[in-house]
Each structure stands twice: as C-alpha cells, then as structure tokens.
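The following record pairs a protein chain with its ligand, 2-succinylbenzoate.
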Amino acid sequence: MKLTAAELVQVRMPLVTPFETSFGVQAERDVLLVRMELDGQPGWGECVTLPSPVYSPEFSEAAATTIRRFLVPALAGIESLTASKVAAVLEPFKGHRMAKAALELAVLDAQLRCVGMSLADYLGAVHATIPSGVSVGIQPSVAELLDVVAGYLDAGYVRIKLKIKPGWDIEPVRAVRERFGDIPLQVDANTAYRLADARHLARLDEFDLLLIEQPLEEEDLTQHAELARQLRTPVCLDESITSAKSAADAIRLGATGVVNIKAGRVGGYLQARQVHDVCAASGVPVWCGGMLETGIGRAANMALAALPGFTLPGDTSASDRFYSRDIITEPFVLSDGHIAVPTGPGLGVEVDEDALAAVTVHRETVPIRWP
Ligand code: OSB
Ligand code: MG
C-alpha cells in the first residue's frame, strides 16, 4: 500500500472539569489528530502531545511541524507501506515519539480496515473488556477531593489515582483512605520530588498504595532505584520509560517495579507491545496510561490494555470522564467498572464528522512531498 493523502486536524475540546497536575491546570484539551489514506483507505491517529513541553519535551506545534516537514514525506517515499515499517522508516529522525506514534496509528487503522482485522486482535488482546481506573487531578481542597472521588467510585471506577505534589500528598491520601477504606489507590507525582524527599515520601507507606508513579525526574533512573530501596510503596515509572530498551534498563537497575505504558511516549503501539513483552519477561506488571485522549486514542488504548501483561487497571476511563461530547459516534461507557474493547476493523470506532467539525480549530492537507 502507498500513502496517498495526509491531513492534520487540530481540535480544542472543553474538559468537563479542569484537570490539575504538578505541571499545571488544563481547562480544555488541544489535540492534534492525523488522518492518512493508504491507497485511498482512510485511517486515524491521535498525537498525545500537550500544547507545551511540561510533561515531555514534545509539544503539539513541534509535532505538527515534524509531521509536515519530515515524517509524512519519509512515509510517502515508501512503495509498500505497512505499520510494521513505520518506526524503521522514521528512525533517522531523533525523538518525536508522540508524533511518530500518531502516524503509525493512522497507518495501522487504515491497514487493518483493509483486511477487516481489529487492532485488539492484531496486538494480541486476550480480554473483551478491561477494568477502568481514573486519574483524579489536584483539587482546591480535601473536602472537594473526597466529593470527586466519591463520584467516581459511584460511577463504578475500580481504581483511583491521585495526582500529588509537595504540599498536596500525605493529607489527601490519608483523607481518601480514611473515608473510602481499602479501595485500590495509587498516586502520581509527575516528577515533582527529589531524592532528598525520600523520608517524606516514605510517610505514604502506611497507606498501602498500589504504587507511586514517577516521583523523580525523567532522567533519574539511578535515583529512582535508590528511592525504591527506601520505600515500601512500589515505584512505577511513566515519563522515564521511552522505549522497550529503557524499560529493560530501568527494571535491571531496580528503578521500577511496575510500568505505566503509554504508546505515544514510546513511539507507537508496536513499541508499546514490546515494552509489555519486556516487562512480562521480567515479571513486572504493567498498566495502560492515558493522555486525556479523544475516542480515537482511547480506542487504541483499550486494545493495548487487553494484552495479557496488563494486570493492573489503567487510566482507561470512559469518554465522559473528560468530555461531554466525544468525536466518535459511540463514546466509551463504563459498565460495572469495565469498558468493552472495540471489535470492529482497525480502531473499531467511527469519527463523528459533525462532532469533529464542532471542535476543529484548524484542518490542513499535508503535502506528500516537502517542496
Ligand atoms: O502522568 O499520567 C500522567 C495526563 C496528562 C499528562 C500526564 C498524565 C496524565 C494523566 C491523565 O494522568 C490520565 C488519563 O488520561 O486518564
Ligand atoms: Mg503519570
């Protein structure tokens, strides 16, 4: 198959409630989508970059430029393009994993639609439904946090993740434990601490958390290993894991006992599956992270999360956790705390063109060759 068309679609979706992390507050989600045609068959991908480089070095404007100038022209030069070739073709361009992942996903979607196979089957999914966790942002007060968590538990979410930062850690965790008892509970620091905070973080040990996610900076593998030795709470890496190779290194060093897998962060769903395989071979449990995806990225995450090594609930919430109107025709819904993995060809979801148009800020055709 050959790449015959490419488009970039920038959307701005209001969030049902602002989402605050240690790196800032978001009230809306700007998302970069890609639509590509292989021999005329369309496929969609989602680029999970944020508008600024506060979670990872990538950001959406840079991703759009990279896709336009380098990545699409490189893919357009391939006579027989399949998803399994995308990473190798794009390898000469350093980094930009989220941009690459978006293109690989669009190719996967188009290619699998052509042969009538679901992404879940292609990746090797073994579950038809997956348990759904929810990531809870930093709240203005502990009282409001308890209300928000109560709402998610009522909705059926089977695991709660609290965003933490210095000044919002021990007390909110204690309050949630006291109020809701023995629920599956974990925290995510998004790099907000330093190794010198080890004794403070050890105060979380008494709350029997499933894990503490990315307490230290992305590059601090050795320091995460040292921190892990000082905590009873398992350390889980997110930002630090950028490939199957870095996952293997982190595991060998003792820097991570659990891994959050986000396909965008590691360069695509095929590399994400390799991260899963590396972790499974070492007996390290994994779970599927999220980046406030629209239904496009969410559909792909559901397929990934259905692989056998995903033994912990992920940040794989229903569409309405973030959006009152998703851009796919059948948004993801929670049923008894679980979400059904799409079974149709490719992503198995259809873009609702009216809903998409309502949130589109900019839509452009990407020339197949850079002039
Ligand atoms: O660290 O997991 C994270 C959102 C944006 C950037 C980083 C993270 C997150 C989340 C959201 O926690 C999880 C979700 O999409 O449900
Ligand atoms: Mg995280």
